[in-house]
Each structure stands twice: as structure tokens, then as C-alpha cells.
Amino acid sequence: MLTQTVQSGLLKRPSLENSLWYNGHTFSFLINAEQSGNAFVLIYCYYKKGGEPPAHYHKNEDETFYVLEGEVQFRIGEENFIAHAGDVAFAPKEVPHHFSLVSETAKALLLITPPGFETFFEEFGVPAQSLELPPIPEGEPPAVFINKMIARAEELGLVWTPEY
Question: Which domains does the chain have, with CATH numbers?
Fold first, then answer.
């Protein structure tokens, strides 16, 4: 009989070893590209109102959000809706999308297929100091940091859509 442990790679849960803080959120990488045979990445997301991304689309990846807790307002293409616990929101590649929290916090599983864009979070996040929510960064980051983020996003096929 196979005994599974959290460390085995077969069974994962959020831990300091697989989590980072990014823009006021806590992301725990449950299954990475290598573990899925480069098929997908699964991230447990603990979101805080105020740190949501601007409208954008991905040239290469689909994003699927399974809401676990809280309420999240999505705009995907021309559709606007509020997702509650148990709801799934699908943002196909090449389709502009945006989300914002209705509740103060929310938790969701984020499935990225195929993997690749998750490296953006890894590059611009910092190792989590706890599994709680970090403070949302105050003020504007330095221009050099913003320019680096914009350049990397473009390399990864992320297109900002401020007119959306």
C-alpha cells in the first residue's frame, strides 16, 4: 500500500516551502509544471481586496479559477458575473479578463494550462513569511521594477488591456 505524505509530491498542501507573497496575496504552488509533465500548474490563491491585476489576456495560457471562499467579480470577454464558493470561472487564452474581490478576502484554486506564466509570480513575488496575507504594497514600485515587470510580461505573452 502506498503511503502518501505532504512531502512526497503526490500529496500537497500550502506550506512555507511552496508559497510566496505577490502583490498582497499568498500563492501556494500545489502542482508545478515538472510534476504535471508540463501539462498544467495548480496554485492555491489567498487573495486580499486591493491587489487584483489590471485587465489583460494571455496569448499562451487558459486560466481556470475555482472559488473556495469569498466572492469574486469577474469580467471575461463580454460576460460580467460574481463567482461564489463552488463556482468555476474560465478565462480562455486570447480573451481579455479581469477580476476584483467583492468580499475582503477570497480563496481559489488557479489552474494554468499550459504552464509558463506562473514564473511571473515566482520572479516578482517574495518567499512567504507565513501563510497569512501580507500587506498590500503601498505606493508605486520604482520605475525600473515596473519596466522589468512589463518586459517580462510581454516575453510571457501577457497583454495588458487598459481600454477593456
Answer: 16-129+140-160 (2.60.120.10)
